Amino acid sequence: MDNHAEAFKHDPRAQLYIDYLRYVEAFAPLAVVVENVPDVLNHGGQNIAEEIAEVLESKGYVCRYTLLNAAFYGVPQMRERMILIAYRREIADKVTFPEPTHFIDLPPGYEGTRSVALKFLDSEIADDAHRYVNAPKAARSLPPAVTAEDALGDLPAIDARKLLKSGELRRGARRFDAPMPYGKAPHTAYARLMRTWPGFEAPDALTDHVIRYLPRDYPLFARMNPGDQYPQAYEHAMEMFEQHLELLAKQGVKVKPGSQQYEDIKASIVPPYDVGKFPNKWRKMWRDQPARTLMAHLGKDSYSHIHYDSRQARTISVREAARLHSFPDGFAFCGTMNPAFRQIGNAVPPLLAKAVATQIMKTLRQTEQEAADEPQRAAAAVS
Q: For 82, which DSSP code?
């Protein structure tokens, strides 16, 4: 087990699984689950998932791993993750993964992510990566994947430009102390689930439906089209800048290019990021598709998830991020806005976790039932 550490001595994050395996060795649980990003199949030329499986099998487990996309399990988010399941050999002799409950044609970007992760498995180096299995396929007859609008449509609207103008939205930490009533009944089965999850029922009013203070960008968010990323956002911003200069010219104010006034006006409208370096930094969501992957850096900017409703012209709130991750409305996050966003982006979506846990429980109960039936089978064999 310790032999695996040497290859990753320069990346402490890649050694965490070694500590995890020490706990497995100490407690010998009946079942083991590991979740990680798809790139764990090729981290610095090493397939860490295969190495974990190898160690577990040497400790008496049967082990398999695969890539599951959360959108196939009722989560309104196209989130690809490596899932590894192992059982003690006296409990089970094979590993199965949960069957999908929803269908979606994943866009090229997500098929590409999967292909890059799996490319390593097809290489000569990974000829012994025999513990990977293909994920169960989703039938087209299944219900369609839950969309962003399915997930968010019943939450209170937040008009960022209106709040900014009234002075209600200001710079500073966003605390969860201002109640915001729903004002609407749940509009989809998913919204009802999020508001009625047993043990995490919705409060009378939300207190974490808070957004970032981004005064420069609200007009730009309103102008962007669904699916637009940073290059398109930059083009929109430059158009807005030119239109503003034209308006000033009509008012008799001439702004000389390159002047301090010119640069100040541009900075008040156009984001400063290099288009070539940050092509994926921004994205406006589609209302009729699941959201793209929620990342931990939501705690820094949230530009990766700009609300699909141009009238609201903003990035998503903490509660909306939680909804897109399948956290029920009664689940409380610690701290203020930034830590809450990080907690969400780092978490396993609850509905995906539930699907995996349900599959494990099914296997354990089947083993328990077979053990209970064994005396009867033995008696029948004797007679």
A: E
